[in-house]
Amino acid sequence: MPRASLLLHVMLSAAAGLALAGPAVASIPSSSCQSAEAAIPSRAPGAVGGREFAQRVAGLEGAARDAEVRTELLAGDLPPRLRHLTPVTLHGHSADGQPVALTFCVMPDYLAVGSDQDSLRMPMGLPTALQVAARFDLVLPTPRLVDAIYDAATVKLTPEPLPAGDDMRTTAYVVQHDLLIARQRTGLNAADDALTAGHKKDLVLTDRLVHVPGRVAIYGWHRASHQPIQPLSTVHGAGYADYSHGVRLVSRTVYVNGVTSSIDKVLADRDLARVLVDEEAPIGMDSQGFLSVLQQRNPR
């Protein structure tokens, strides 16, 4: 066996040996996510805060508001805390029964406009979410990863639905819901950068977005572990967004039993993909091809 191949064989064998030790193999330090942190522009001095932005888009909904959200996010106008990604691990088994641990680096909260001291979590349609994710070299999560994020969250918030109706899509509802979230966080004395979940439904990736084009997939808003208010749904059009929706982005870097890899390689490997997705929400191709199809079918 050539020296390079022998070295690779030894490394992979060592990784497999670690996997046999069980969940401890996935315990990577938080610093490991620094190398996977998003390529997000720095926030410019004088960038608008959440309160000012809410006033700017008070009368906007849909594509018009999304355009304003996109402009601010792509200019780096989001809280610095969101740039510090947090490790979250999915556990499973390969086809031959060996333990597998996939560790992802995730944003600690949903995308927001503004600073750490003055921000507003903003919902957005799928086209805007995909464009922002692509610019930051990040991706949306899968439903199974959303479950894992909730389980790993050190701050678990209680869902607070507002009355249903046309007002759900207004900025006023977005602001009202953000105030309810802030009140809960204050009551829990939660750190700004703590991994937080339970307060929004996630925009997620699933093959349904290819089979039923022109829709957005949402999932989550957990009451407890594996108990989401919102099961996986593609009932809404791709441009739909209401106050209950959030966009949490995930790095393309993945640690497979502690070894650096990528989400593209994970999805191209049937055994590993089985850990990341489930039968109700499969992704049938590598993420690069999958996301390319989505972006073509959901232009801004």
Q: What would your notes on this structure say?
A:
This protein has helices at residues 3-20, 50-56, 62-74, 126-135, 143-152, 171-188, 208-211, 263-268, 270-276, 287-297, and strands at residues 86-93, 99-106, 112-114, 119-121, 138-139, 155-156, 196-197, 201-203, 218-224, 227-233, 245-246, 250-256, 259-262. By secondary structure, it is of the alpha+beta class. It has one domain (42-297). The longest helix is centred in the N-terminal third of the chain and has 18 residues, at 3-20. The model is unreliable at 1-26 (pLDDT under 50).
* Backbone shape: globular
Low-confidence stretches: 1-26
In percent, how much strand structure appears in the residues? 15-25%
- Which range best describes the helical content: under 10%, 10-25%, 25-40%, 40-55%, 55-70% or over 70%? 25-40%
Radius of gyration: 19 Å
Q: Give the terminus-to-terminus CA distance.
A: 51 Å
Q: What is the count of helical runs?
A: 10
- The tally of domains stands at 1
Structural class: alpha+beta
Q: State the order of secondary-structure elements, H for helix, E for strand.
A: HHHEEEEHEHEHEEHEEEEEHHH
Short description:
This protein is of the alpha+beta class. It has one domain. It has helices at 3-20, 50-56, 62-74, 126-135, 143-152, 171-188, 208-211, 263-268, 270-276, 287-297; strands at residues 86-93, 99-106, 112-114, 119-121, 138-139, 155-156, 196-197, 201-203, 218-224, 227-233, 245-246, 250-256, 259-262.
